[in-house]
Amino acid sequence: MDNLPDQLVWEILSRVKKTVDRNSASLACKRLYELDSEQRQSLRIGCGLDPANQALTSLCNRFSNLVKVEITYSGWMSKLGKQLDDQGLVILANNCPSLIDLTLSYCTFITDVGLRYLASCSKLSALKLNFTPRITGCGVLSLVVGCKKLTILHLNRCLNVTSVEWLEYLGKLETLEDLSIKNCRVIGEGDLIKLGSSWRKLKKLQFEVDANYRYMKVYDPLTVDQWQKQLVPCESMLELSLVNCIISPGRGLACVLGKCKNLEKIHLDMCVGVRDCDIIDLALKSKNLRSISLRVPSDFSLPLLLNNPLRLTDESLKAVAQNCPMLESVCISFSDGEFPSFSSFTLNGILALIQMCPIRELALDHVYSFNDVGMEALCSAQYLETLELVRCQEISDEGLQLVSQFPCLCILRLRKCLGITDDGLKPLVESGKMEILTVEDCPQISERGVQGAARSVSFRQDLSWMY
């Protein structure tokens, strides 16, 4: 080792990916210790820091070229010692001049004061805050004002971030590319209009409303007019994920769905108010769509809503099938309850996707309209590699036995399916073509029945969901 040049040793260390292995290697000799200290660019720390601020100071002094830092206190208890506080963020700001990416999770001692210290990190481009309950919108605003290179901002369960002036400021900067706001209570769909010109550069948007605490903001006429006249296209948007959102006709997020012409991935989970015309507009614009995930609220099954124009139908799926030739991943799910075949998507709509798109991954959850006929149709799905069936109670052994005839299927996941027994898996045992088989909570399938059905088998039986 003594005769090897530093550059070669540097290259060797860079190939050691596991932190525990890097730590062991650095203790082998003084030279490796010093080179590792210079080379280490990322650090993940948490409950083991005690005393927190002193330990962090020591780490920052040793690793002077840190680019990415993650601090997480998941599972923290008071007996583990005091958490990192605002002073710890002073240490980061003063000792990590190259800091670009920072994640703070369950850091309950961090306040707006600490975020103001971080505002001096001029190179910071990615900030992720997960359950930091003491920070407010004022702290976020002070940080985005100082960190003008911010391109990624994630706020998850930041319960006291109520003001949204920071959104308006980010809109003027036009640097944001990845925005995630999840369960921040009073931040509503209408507040996203404040992004203004930043919609042009936004590549990824995740917006999730806390279903247990929805602050019902009223759209004033000015806000509605702003959405309807929104001239900034979402031409850079690649991924869009909306959970528990209200999609109001002609305003809010409904205006976004039809403007994402380069969209590759969309996830709509329990979004009330989505109409066929919204999905059709999306399909007509998004020719590059590769993945679509739809989880439909159970309210769609109620008799009162059967004639409701807000109800999604097969027209949506057929529009996607006809206009999205690159679609590879499809997930369709109903939240709960029994869904009559005429209340929403039927087998015809699902088959349109299978027959017209190169589907590689298909996941169906609680889709009672999908039966053995649908399984027979999958025999012609020449690209299908992964199939996941959850609570699809109309599928029997006869339908499952057809899986061995699927051209490219190598991964099968079965969960909570009542109509399938060990007999349905016998053709898989005989064919030996399946790579991965996962069976969970299917009451009529035994552990013995899955043996030999795939090269890798996972089995679990917990029937508490039935009672």
TrEMBL record:
UniProt xrefs under InterPro entries: COI1_F-box (IPR041567), FBXL15_LRR (IPR057207), Leu-rich_rpt (IPR001611), Leu-rich_rpt_Cys-con_subtyp (IPR006553), LRR_dom_sf (IPR032675)
Domain of life where this protein originates: Eukaryota
Gene3D superfamilies for the chain: 1.20.1280.50, Ribonuclease Inhibitor
Protein name: COI1 F-box domain-containing protein
PANTHER family on file: F-BOX_LRR-REPEAT PROTEIN 14, PARTNER OF PAIRED, ISOFORM B-RELATED
Pfam family, one: LRR_6
Positions of the COI1 F-box domain: 2-41
F-box/LRR-repeat protein 15-like leucin rich repeat domain ranges (all copies): 376-450
